[in-house]
Amino acid sequence: MFERPTFCQVIITIYAFYKTVPATDVTLEQIIAEFDRQYEDYQNEIYASFLFLENKQKQGETFQDFYSRLKSSVEDCKYNDPDRLLRDKIVQDITDKPLQERLLRETSRHLLV
User: Which is deepest, 17, 33, 46, 60, by most CB within 10 Å?
Assistant: First the structure.
């Protein structure tokens, strides 16, 4: 698995990359591009999980829109069983309380997947 470099490691790498170039020749865009290059293969799974878990169905939002938002969000989390987490999140945060109660009673997973 790809290990995220520390901020200091990135700064040192960028410094080493540009230390032979006079400071006046280095643009902010070049520095940002190098910073992005250092992080391009890394996705912060903890932050992605945080965003996924913060999702709640908005007042007036259709179930389909809520489901689509969650489905898109869970993909970045790299969970071992994203379907189960998606199901549990829907049951926990759906605003339709009668449907929530039905889902809590229901044992069949096919309703949500």
Answer: 17
pLDDT of residue 5: 63
Tokens of 61: 């939002």
pTM of the predicted model as reported, rounded to 2 decimal places: 0.55
> Among 57, 44, 52, which Cα is nearest to 74's?
52
Tokens standing for residue 110: 């096919």
Distance CA 9, CA 42 (A): 14
Cβ atoms of 48 and 77 closer than 8 Å? yes
For residue 47, the SS3 value is helix
Count Cβ atoms below 10 Å from residue 10 Cβ, excluding itself. Answer: 16
| Mean pLDDT computed over 11-40 | 70
Helices within the chain (DSSP H only): 7-18, 28-39, 45-54, 63-74, 82-93, 97-105
